[in-house]
Protein: Protein germ cell-less
Organism: Drosophila madeirensis
Amino acid sequence: MGQIMGSMQSNVAEVFSNRRKRKRSTDSTLGQEEQAQLGTTLAKKKKLLTTTQYIYKALFKEEKNSDVAVMVLDKVWHLHKVYLSQSPYFYTMFNGTWKEAQQNFVQITIPDDRINVESLDAVFGSMYSDEIEIDPKDVIPVLATATLFHLDGIIDKCSEVMVDTINAETAIHYYEAACQYGVVGVKKSTFQWFQINLLSIYSKQPNLLRHISIDLMTALTASQDLYVMQTEFSLYTLLRTWMFLRLHPDHDPEDPVQRAEAQRTQDQLVNAGVDTHTPSMDVAQWKYFTSRMEERSFLATPEGQPFVPVFQKLRTQYLTNHYMDLKIIYNDNIIPKEWLYSHIHSHWDALLRIDHGQEDSSPQQLDDDQFFENCMRCGRLLTEPGYQKWRWTGFNFGMDLILIMDSRRLNIRRHHRHEHERVLSLQTKRKFMIRTTVTSINAQRQPVFTQTSEICSLSLEKNEEVPLMVLDPKLVHPLLISINLLVVMPPNQSFKEVVPHSEEPTSATSFSIPISEIGATCERPLTPSSADDSAVYIGDSEASTPTSPSPRRRITWPREIAVSSEADALFGDMAC
């Protein structure tokens, strides 16, 4: 009996167990079907248009229930006043006393050539949607259209796109548009990009360089934050090329035919014994400036007058520190020779003061504006980490300064070797002022992180080395290094405010006067009354100072281009 009861219990349990299994299986099967149906339902819901999408499609694209037609650039849009009124331009039109408020057809005249049908369609469509897609190649027309209709949200979106896409191809157009439409953020970002890349990029892309306006180039040349690669003479050669390209819009240095012709001309000049000190692609500009028969500088001519403000901002005092630089500049005859003579006089005066140990020869008690206005600008690109050291060429008032990058530290050293003592300052200590800026850039050469030091005054003994900056960990290579340096008190440069229109030599400057007769009428005794008199400054006691020389008789330098008859024939055949 017990066995029967046990067997019955076992069968009952098995029956119920099988029922539960079938129920679970059925439930599981139903669950999968329901999930499939649910998934299908969700997929269908995703395909439904949102309210915004429906409004955009039905009211803007299909133009349903339009209550106003807007005609611009010969195209008509059938739109809705309630949506257009999001723009202050249209809100005033439809809600004021203007005649358009009572009309259902509006014609708008566009005074801006940057605005086109595509940008109008994009901006009108944005009023029916909560987003707008802006392609970088269309951003300026969209910005112009948004500015016309006072749509700040779209203007801000355009600004973001422009700042993110600044490069060599877009920077000039972006800067001009930012100035025209008052987009301060874009103007600031593009100007900063120019400061970093002007000499690094545009010196290699002349057909982009020529489109930089005179106003923009003037501002860049004046900037203390301009990354001058390598020295001020590099900036001079860039300005010479830029000026030539703007004067000759048909000249294309990148054209293969013109490049081949320039190379042939360069070879002929070399065979004729003429050293142009310039690459073949620049031989046309070399000919244009050096073959002028006028004695006056190019800036004094009608063609050169528009470029005077740019060269006035050039730190021309640092163009006379190297023999070859000075020779090229003199032969170009772009800059007035009076400027060069004044700089040479100031340099010699500073050297004599340094040699005499005058305290006022070293820069001191200068405010930031005076320092930035007169400092020398030098720059260098470091592509990879590691130990590196370099100097910038030119006679630096008897100081041989070397920059050293060692790991994450940038140092400066006053280098002094005994075999060079004749051209180096023998003063135990030399004072100077310096500021250091290091910038990390991305693939578009946009600044990622910048570290700048304060303006500091240093006093270095011979062969002394001191740190300038410990690099922040955020600075990664490639690195751009910019140095602002001032080693002597800046002279008065008010003479650059005037460009002489005539530089013809006068009889007083003729070399026919024997050198023994020069100064024959001087009242100063031939023999100093004391040893101290031999080092005094000679000049007008009241009207002249060592840093502001009085007018003097000008010495005419001979032009140093030895041109043969064969070269003369080349000049006649060459075309710019």
